[in-house]
Specification:
- By secondary structure, this protein is of the alpha/beta class.
- It contains five helices and seven strands; from the N terminus they run βαβαβαβββαβα.
- It has a seven-stranded parallel beta sheet with strand order 3-2-1-6-4-7-5, sandwiched between helices.
């Protein structure tokens, strides 16, 4: 068998829009926000809640106008509570006392995936209302993945579990 590169294939079809929302605590780096936006758009996520004033770098995010609805909020917890009332499960990506390995977590279709600040993690007020906390297993120092990489890994697992939207 010979493999021939085929770059920029047509997107895989979805039966329905993905009912997944990404929630970002205030980030220190616009690069991380831009990388997360790119991963979200590539996974057909329609909505992202961003706290703080980091801006997207279009050279990094590579998203088109209207492809990703980015909602800016001062605080993530009130937006998370509202989505919870609308039937979303709040899943924090964080190393906690009772977090589940990402590979063992079964994502509900309607999920708010909460990612924390690069240094401080998921805000305490978001952990208090989270339905679940998942962590990505690491096997040696530096003991955690970069937040943008964590987002991409968690997005991949969600999409693996819900391949058609």
């Amino acid at each position: 068998m010979r493999f021939v590169q085929e770059r920029h294939r047509e997107p895989w079809p979805l039966r329905a829009p993905r009912p997944l929302v990404i929630g970002l605590a205030p980030m220190n780096s616009g690069v991380n926000v831009s990388q997360i936006a790119r991963a979200a758009a590539s996974c057909a996520v329609d909505h992202m809640i961003v706290c703080g004033n980091q801006r997207l770098d279009p050279k990094i995010s590579r998203i088109e106008d209207g492809q990703l609805d980015i909602r800016r909020r001062r605080s993530l917890a009130p937006a998370a509570r509202k989505l919870q009332q609308e039937g979303y499960e709040v899943v924090a990506v964080e190393q906690t006392t009772h977090s589940t390995p990402l590979t063992e977590h079964r994502f509900a279709p309607r999920t708010l995936l909460v990612l924390g600040n690069e240094r401080l993690g998921v805000p305490e007020d978001c952990l208090e209302i989270a339905d679940h906390a998942v962590e990505i297993p690491v096997f040696r120092p530096p003991h955690s993945f970069n937040v943008a990489m964590s987002a991409a890994i968690a997005l991949y697992e969600y999409c693996r579990q819900h391949p058609e939207g």
